[in-house]
Amino acid sequence: MEKTWKKACEKKVCPPDQIESFVAGIRQAGKTIATLNGSFDLLHAGHLQILFEASQVGDCLIVALNTDRSIQAYKNPLRPIISLEYRIEMMAALEFVYAVTWFDETDPRSILSKIKPDVHVNGSEYGLNCIEADIVKAHGGRIHIVDLVPGLSTSQIVQKVAAIH
């Protein structure tokens, strides 16, 4: 049977207004949930490493992406480089990502309060006392910190590309 790229990716996409019922199904199956959030603009090896590690601390990894408007509000009005539609597809294409959702706020606390992850994963730059910690812990979850890959960030990549031109 022939599948289109979009059809293959759609199976892993869960709109925010459906996330609570989606998560209920996962919990009913007795599985644990890990979450990771971010913009994941210009997907690179550093992103892949944190995504993979996040997938190892729970049965199902749900990635929550910042919308384009969210990124423009908290990072830069000229970002993202890759629109939400395509960032969702990239995440959904990864074997170790169970599902992808998104949020329009500048931080993920609202979507995390709906998901109620067992483990929320963050990069070491945010630490254990990250903005998400109180919401995650209030629902019995914990924070897991992953060391970043030195020299690999979207901002650094953008700077290198700009320097070339």
Could you please describe the fold and organization of this structure?
The structure is a single chain. This protein is α/β, with parallel strands linked by helices and 165 residues long. It has one domain (32-162): Rossmann fold (3-Layer(aba) Sandwich), CATH 3.40.50. The protein is built from eight helices and five strands; from the N terminus they run ααβαβααβαβαβα. It has helices at residues 5-10, 19-28, 45-56, 68-74, 84-93, 109-115, 133-138, 154-164; strands at 33-38, 60-66, 99-103, 119-123, 142-146. The longest helix has 12 residues, at 45-56. It is globular, with a radius of gyration of 16 Å. 32% of the residues are buried. The model has no long low-confidence stretch (mean pLDDT 92). It holds the Pfam family CTP_transf_like. Residues 36-140 form the Cytidyltransferase-like domain. GO terms for molecular function: nucleotidyltransferase activity.
Number of domains: 1
Query: Please, how many helices?
Result: 8
Determine the fraction of residues in helical runs and give it as a percent range. Answer: 40-55%
Strand order of the largest sheet: 3-2-1-4-5
If you compute it from the alpha carbons, what radius of gyration comes out, rounded to the nearest whole angstrom? 16 Å
Q: Could you spell the SSE succession in H and E letters?
A: HHEHEHHEHEHEH
Shape: globular
The N- and C-terminal alpha carbons lie at a distance of 44 Å
Just name the CATH architecture.
Answer: 3-Layer(aba) Sandwich
What can be said about the biggest beta sheet?
Answer: 5 strands, parallel
Q: What average pLDDT do the residues reach?
A: 92
Strand proportion, as a percent range, falls in 15-25%
